[in-house]
């Protein structure tokens, strides 16, 4: 029931903060906006922030299985794509569908992502920012510097962007 309730808020354009235990459906809540928009034939970009490379790839895989054009964007996937002539950032930027970039917070500060975040057309396409393990924002430890970069995203993105945080 909490998944449906929170997904309805996300789809109404409301920011959501979800606190739930492991395996309680946070991922579906984090992805609910893009999933519903795709079902309606809409366009847009979702940025999903997770703490580790392993989770980046897992979340991108889950989103892909749900029919979203999701890309795992971390140092490894960017490098590997370039070796075969692909540019994950261009793939994220272009298209007429729902696109999801799953990345660690540190990737927001990489030069290619910073370039995208300065392009008005890209900024205007971003509709959702989902943050997994949101309790790490401001918490001391290995993830602190990356998650602190999320504090600047509110001013970098349009006010219409729906924020979905889970922990």
UniProtKB/TrEMBL annotation:
<dbReference type="InterPro" id="IPR011545">
    <property type="entry name" value="DEAD/DEAH_box_helicase_dom"/>
</dbReference>
<dbReference type="Pfam" id="PF00270">
    <property type="entry name" value="DEAD"/>
</dbReference>
<keyword id="KW-0413">Isomerase</keyword>
<protein>
    <recommendedName>
        <fullName>DNA 3'-5' helicase</fullName>
        <ecNumber>5.6.2.4</ecNumber>
    </recommendedName>
</protein>
<dbReference type="GO" id="GO:0000724">
    <property type="term" value="P:double-strand break repair via homologous recombination"/>
</dbReference>
<dbReference type="GO" id="GO:0043138">
    <property type="term" value="F:3'-5' DNA helicase activity"/>
</dbReference>
<dbReference type="GO" id="GO:0005524">
    <property type="term" value="F:ATP binding"/>
</dbReference>
<dbReference type="InterPro" id="IPR027417">
    <property type="entry name" value="P-loop_NTPase"/>
</dbReference>
<dbReference type="GO" id="GO:0003677">
    <property type="term" value="F:DNA binding"/>
</dbReference>
<dbReference type="GO" id="GO:0005694">
    <property type="term" value="C:chromosome"/>
</dbReference>
<dbReference type="GO" id="GO:0009378">
    <property type="term" value="F:four-way junction helicase activity"/>
</dbReference>
<keyword id="KW-0238">DNA-binding</keyword>
<comment type="similarity">
    <text>Belongs to the helicase family. RecQ subfamily.</text>
</comment>
<dbReference type="GO" id="GO:0005737">
    <property type="term" value="C:cytoplasm"/>
</dbReference>
<dbReference type="InterPro" id="IPR014001">
    <property type="entry name" value="Helicase_ATP-bd"/>
</dbReference>
<keyword id="KW-0378">Hydrolase</keyword>
<dbReference type="GO" id="GO:0016787">
    <property type="term" value="F:hydrolase activity"/>
</dbReference>
<feature type="domain" description="Helicase ATP-binding">
    <location>
        <begin position="7"/>
        <end position="167"/>
    </location>
</feature>
């Amino acid at each position: 029931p909490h998944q449906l309730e929170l997904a309805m808020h996300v789809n109404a354009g409301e920011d959501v903060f979800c606190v739930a235990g492991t395996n309680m459906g946070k991922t579906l809540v984090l992805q609910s906006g893009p999933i519903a928009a795709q079902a309606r034939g809409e366009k847009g970009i979702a940025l999903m922030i997770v703490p580790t490379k392993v989770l980046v790839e897992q979340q991108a895989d889950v989103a892909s299985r749900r029919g979203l054009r999701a890309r795992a964007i971390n140092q490894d996937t960017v490098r590997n794509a370039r070796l075969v002539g692909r540019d994950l950032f261009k793939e994220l930027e272009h298209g007429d569908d729902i696109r999801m970039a799953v990345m660690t917070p540190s990737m927001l500060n990489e030069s290619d992502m910073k370039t995208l975040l300065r392009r008005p057309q890209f900024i205007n396409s971003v509709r959702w920012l989902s943050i997994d393990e949101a309790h790490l924002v401001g918490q001391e430890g290995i993830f602190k510097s990356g998650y602190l970069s999320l504090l600047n995203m509110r001013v970098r993105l349009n006010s219409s962007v729906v924020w979905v945080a889970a922990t």
